[in-house]
Write a structure and sequence with these properties.
0% strand, single chain, 551 residues, 21 helices, mainly alpha
């Protein structure tokens, strides 16, 4: 494979173009962001329902351990990493209209083989559910009645991995075709279904699993119209070059994911040793922590991936044919990546600061109902704030990994992932006694920091220096803006907390709304005062009419 190399270090734009002025990339990111907002809001609704009905009970901990297995299998086999690292880059090579018949052949092969493998795995997990639940951490529950409940829920939940995986492959096809709308809202369908099913049978913890099953199946149905011109059929021919490329690209990722999943299982086991409800605190905090990641980073990175993939491919072809276009293609690749990094940094830092400042009032508003107490709010907020330390690193790192996948380089991110997971595990074990549950959040921040720094080093070696694209300037301005946002939001929330005499839902809503507005207003002031161009140019993303879906 021809790597991207820095052909001309001096050929860099003096004034970088904001990504929002690029050809539709951030328009696509806007669609994905809207979908992510909807999904995350419904995800929060799911957590609100869970907290209201089950609080931080041990029963909810049994459910969390039970669904860990199908979600682990999904992440390993056809999860988001496979979509971004293998499916979209390879499918994009066949996305042109004249190559569509071959694209549908490749998609048919992938779906057929993935389904066959997954059916076998689902049967094995259901058969050996007691042993799998024991490994997942059920043995560490103080309440011995939780283990058989975990096994029952696990057997019920495991078939969801088949539906989730088929949906994931369909997502990869639609993203490669730049049909972003339906994939953007699959998460909303999933979370919304869980909420509805649980509310229909609130007295049963198994309702969460039934919602998981139905939601995963409806993701397939929801995306089917996007494949209106597709010709998918059952076929098990696996010698096609595209299938081999997908396997070759994904093989290193699987190794890293296996190590990562082992670390997750270790973290669950360590968390349970600090209390049966610690896993639940982690789950609630993770949901809030991932909200800005999904809203900003996932949207930008997924929207950017097809373009980066095609630029990287055209660059390699130009190099191999000794074309004069090679330098231009490299410049376009670097400009697209730098624009994505600047936009992510510009938005994620203020979001992280606001979330850190308003952790307690946000959690109290969303979760402190029914069985979820004020003490639970304090603990969850503490966990969330430590998580946020690594949020910025996680955001930048995701863009760097996506850029590497676009170059069809998956083994380097995989190797870096293994290194960072080893460091995470060592850190967690070293700090578990003095810090307890918080040791896992500290270890997570260290993991993201290490991964990001190594990926930056790899990027410089493969692509060259991005110093001419004002990423550093965007970072400094965003830090100032973030500090201002955090201070404004915190002061507003503190002042209003002293004004309201009674702690009611309306008072909590008023505090979060007013403090959030203060933070957003402060950010807008900072954008114009500091001339943050990438944020200012986002106004161009509002279309005068609905954007057309790419064919």
């Amino acid at each position: 494979m021809t790597e991207l190399t820095n052909i001309s270090p001096t050929e860099q734009p003096q004034v970088p173009v904001p990504l929002s002025e690029d050809s539709g990339i951030v328009r696509a990111a806007a669609v994905l962001a809207i979908g992510n907002i909807t999904s995350r809001v419904l995800g929060l609704a799911r957590e609100i329902v869970k907290s209201n009905l089950y609080g931080t009970s041990s029963l909810l901990g049994a459910y969390t351990v039970a669904v860990l297995v199908p979600m682990t299998l999904f992440n390993l086999i056809t999860g988001g990493e496979m979509v971004s690292s293998s499916l979209v880059p390879v499918f994009s090579d066949y996305a042109a209209k004249e190559k569509r018949p071959e694209l549908w052949r490749v998609v048919s092969m992938v779906l057929s083989m993935a389904s066959a493998i997954l059916i076998i795995i689902v049967i094995l997990v259901i058969w050996f559910a007691p042993q799998v639940a024991w490994l997942a951490g059920a043995r560490n529950f103080d309440d011995q009645t939780l283990a058989p409940i975990t096994v029952k829920l696990m057997r019920l939940a495991t078939p969801a991995v088949l539906f989730l995986s088929i949906s994931s492959v369909l997502t990869g096809v639609l993203l490669a075709l730049k049909r972003f709308t339906l994939p953007a809202f699959t998460g909303a369908v999933f979370n919304g279904t869980i909420v509805v099913v649980v509310l229909l049978r609130p007295e049963e913890i198994s309702s969460l699993v039934w919602g998981l099953l139905l939601g995963s199946f409806l993701q397939i149905i929801f995306q089917a119209p996007g494949l209106r011109d597709g010709h998918i059929r059952l076929t098990y021919y696996w010698r096609h070059p595209a299938v081999r490329r997908i396997i070759t690209l994904y093989a290193p990722i699987v190794v890293a994911l296996v190590v990562n999943q082992i670390a997750i299982w270790i973290s669950y086991n360590l968390a349970i040793t600090t209390g049966d409800n610690s896993v639940t605190y982690m789950t609630y905090a993770t949901t809030l922590y991932q909200f800005p990641l999904g809203l900003v980073v996932t949207a930008v990175s997924i929207a950017t991936l097809p373009t980066l993939s095609r630029l990287a491919t055209s660059y390699r072809e130009a190099v191999e044919s000794h074309s004069d276009d090679a330098t231009q293609r490299l410049s376009e690749y670097k400009e697209t990546l730098a624009g994505g990094l600047r936009l992510v940094i510009t938005l994620i830092l203020p979001a992280a600061a606001g979330l850190f400042a308003l952790a307690v009032p946000i959690i109290a508003l969303l979760l402190e109902h029914g069985q979820f107490t004020s003490d639970d709010t304090v603990i969850t907020a503490r966990v969330l704030r430590v998580y946020i330390i690594g949020l910025v690193f996680a955001a930048v790192d995701q863009m760097l990994v996506i850029a590497s996948y676009a170059r069809k380089d998956t083994w380097r991110p995989a190797l870096v992932g293994v290194i960072s997971i080893v460091i995470y595990t060592i850190t967690a074990f070293a700090l578990i006694k003095p810090l307890g549950l918080l040791s896992l959040m500290v270890a997570d921040a260290v993991k993201h920091g290490v991964h990001t720094l190594i990926m930056i080093w790899i990027l410089r070696r493969q692509v060259g220096n991005l110093s001419g694209y004002q990423i550093g300037a965007a970072l400094l301005k965003s830090i100032v803006a973030a500090i201002s946002v955090g201070i404004a939001a915190y002061i507003c929330a503190t002042l209003l907390s002293g004004v309201f005499e009674h702690d009611t839902f309306l008072s909590r809503l008023a505090i979060v709304a007013a403090a959030g507005f203060a933070g957003v207003l402060t950010f807008l002031i900072a954008v114009f005062a500091l001339d943050i161009r990438d944020a200012k140019s986002l106004k161009q993303l509002v279309p005068k009419k609905a954007p057309k879906t790419a064919s």
